[in-house]
Amino acid sequence: MTDESKTAADAPHDDFGPVGYQPLSRIQLIGGARLQAAWSRIPHVTHFDEADVTALEAGRKRRNESQSATRLTLLTWVARACVDALREHPRFCASLDEEGRRVMLKRYLNLGIAVDTPMGLVVAVVHGADKLSLDELGAAIAGLAERGRLGKLKPTELEGTCFTISSLGGLGGTGFTPIINPPDVAILGVSPARIRPEWIAGAVEPRLILPLSLSYDHRVISGADAARFCTHLRQQLADGCGITPSIA
Ligand code: CAO
């Protein structure tokens, strides 16, 4: 670079004041390289939608209060709705081959769950998510999240995903555009549900609305596919995936 082409941005940062350095963790280095590759190689589009989870949340709270079973978070139902939507829309449970000429449809269903840990972000994998009951699915996610935070995930619990959920629902924000986790072709971002006034059957009602953002590989999935997938998710969540007790 010649002197003439240098800009203020090229000046060493410590010209302006003291700086400190923090090394990236091994997880951040490995994860960062994967994210960089995914971001630059995959043509991402993010589709936004919202689900009315008023009834589901009321049913979830009743269930958690009345049963001695494990506490289930809203994410469990989101995961269950994804399992159902993936069965109906198999192109979302797929990978693109190396040459980018064939879509490999997977006949198994492993769900990746992004977990925030002190060492960085990891994607823990619920193997055979379609074979689990709602309670088993919730317990599997909670167990993986716990082991992830303690740095105790086994290598097999970090591989084999078909589709990933990245939930910031317990943390904050109004929406975000998640980066696809290869070899997946789509990822669902979930943001915190909030109560807001909705116009329903001629009257304004307070409803709990859950923001969803689905990033997909546009080589494999079209905008119409994404809209249909999210419509399926919305419908599943609106009726509690048909498995929330007393959901009215
Ligand atoms: N809206 C409103 N409330 C939500 C919610 C949502 N979308 N999602 C979860 N909640 C609620 C839960 O139901 C729970 O409520 P109760 O206390 O009443 O039971 C509460 O928030 C706390 O949930 P949680 O955070 O303990 O558990 P979870 O199952 O929702 O999430 C996990 C687990 C592993 C996804 C989360 O701990 C985590 O690590 N999230 C960060 C993931 C991340 O960093 N993603 C960004 C990656 S960049 O693409």
SS-based class: alpha+beta
| Total beta-strand segments | 9
First-residue to last-residue Cα separation = 67 Å
Q: What is the highest CATH level, the class?
A: Alpha Beta
CATH architecture: 2-Layer Sandwich
The SSE order reads: HEHHEEEEHEEEEH
Whole-number radius of gyration? 20 Å
Description:
The structure is a single chain. This protein is α+β, with helices and mostly antiparallel strands. The chain has a single domain (46-242), classed as Chloramphenicol Acetyltransferase (2-Layer Sandwich), CATH 3.30.559.10. The chain is 31% helix and 25% strand. It has 5 helices and 9 strands; from the N terminus they run H-E-H-H-E-E-E-E-H-E-E-E-E-H. The protein has helices at residues 26-41, 54-66, 74-88, 134-149, 223-238; strands at residues 44-52, 94-96, 103-105, 111-117, 120-126, 163-167, 186-190, 194-200, 203-217. The strands form 2 sheets. Strands 1, 4, 5, 6, 7, 8 and 9 form a 7-stranded mixed beta sheet that branches. The chain has a two-stranded antiparallel sheet with strand order 2-3. Strand 2 (94-96) and strand 3 form a beta hairpin. Helix 3 (74-88) packs across helix 4 and helix 3 crosses helix 5. The longest helix is centred in the first third of the chain and has 16 residues, at 26-41. The radius of gyration is 20 Å and the shape is globular. The N and C termini lie far apart (67 Å).
